[in-house]
Design a protein that fits this description.
- The chain has one domain.
- Helix content is 87%, strand content 0%.
- Helix 1 crosses helix 6, helix 2 runs parallel beside helix 6 and helix 4 packs antiparallel against helix 6.
- The N and C termini lie far apart (67 Å).
Length: 277
């Protein structure tokens, strides 16, 4: 009995290390597979550039509507509420120092540089990224993708590139929409809590927020869009087996795309700090 109890921890350590090793190996394998998928998409995109007649405009327009136009209400609502929250949280501190007018700086810079592109990307990761993974994963399980290859249709050109291009177009436009609604929310809260009217707010806003700050936030959007679309489609193609696999890879698509978007945002912050932007 004593020997069995004493041997148990020694037996547990190799099992724990084995699980850690397998997890790390799986993560590296998936990262390399994602890089390979990115390379295949780049080759397919070059093929479209070399032969513009092969571009599938109908799927691009359809995905632009489903990923862009249909996302306007939720993006606008959350951005408006986020602008209200930012202004409300800063109102107490600004009021103590008689710096009420600087709420325009707080709302403008935070929304345009960080919050608007980030919250829009997170919403689309949960909304469009999961839809891409579920759609392609279901097609993989039902062998529709194999049927497409059999009849000579390239799945990347039919399923992936239209989604990537549509989201790269839609996300910057949604970011601009989120900028406007977020500033409107902050302006409403500034008027009700700090006594800063819309005219004063907009006058200070135009002085505090430069075109560089606006372009910094807008420039992140295409990168976030590419990450969301590629990760969603990649997880969809990795689906196999049964419907349980569709749910698993859809969840992975959302988690990984949000994680990579936040990592990319952190890298952008470091780069812009170094470049003094």
């Amino acid at each position: 009995m004593i020997e069995a109890v004493m041997d148990t921890p020694a037996q547990q350590h190799p099992a724990f290390l084995e699980r850690v090793g397998l997890s790390v190996a799986t993560a590296f394998e998936e990262a390399f597979a994602l890089l390979g998928f990115l390379g295949e998409c780049a080759v397919a995109l070059c093929g479209w550039c070399a032969h513009p007649a092969r571009v599938r405009w109908r799927p691009i327009v359809f995905n632009l509507r489903s990923s862009g136009v249909d996302a306007l209400p939720i993006v606008g609502l959350l951005s408006f509420l986020l602008g209200i929250v930012v202004a409300y949280q800063g109102a107490g501190q600004l009021r103590q120092y008689g710096a009420n007018i600087f709420v325009a700086d707080l709302v403008g810079l935070s929304m345009l540089r960080e919050f608007a592109p980030l919250i829009t990307a997170i919403i689309l990761a949960g909304r469009s990224g999961s839809a891409y993974a579920a759609q392609i994963g279901t097609m993989a399980v039902t062998e529709e993708i194999d049927a497409m290859r059999t009849i000579g249709i390239a799945p990347l050109e039919m399923l992936v590139l239209p989604k990537v291009i549509a989201l790269v177009i839609a996300l910057p436009l949604l970011t601009v929409f989120a900028d406007v609604l977020g500033v409107c929310g902050g302006m409403l809260m500034a008027s009700s809590q700090l006594g800063v009217g819309p005219g004063e707010f907009l006058d200070r806003f135009s002085k505090a927020v430069s075109m560089t700050s606006y372009l910094v936030g807008l420039g992140k959007a295409p990168v976030f869009a590419a990450i969301i679309a590629l990760v969603g489609c990649f997880q969809g193609f990795r689906t196999h087996g049964s419907a349980d696999s569709v749910g698993l890879h859809t969840t992975r698509a959302v988690v990984q795309s949000i994680f990579l978007v936040i990592v990319a945002d952190a890298l952008f912050s470091v780069a812009f700090s170094v470049l003094d932007l």
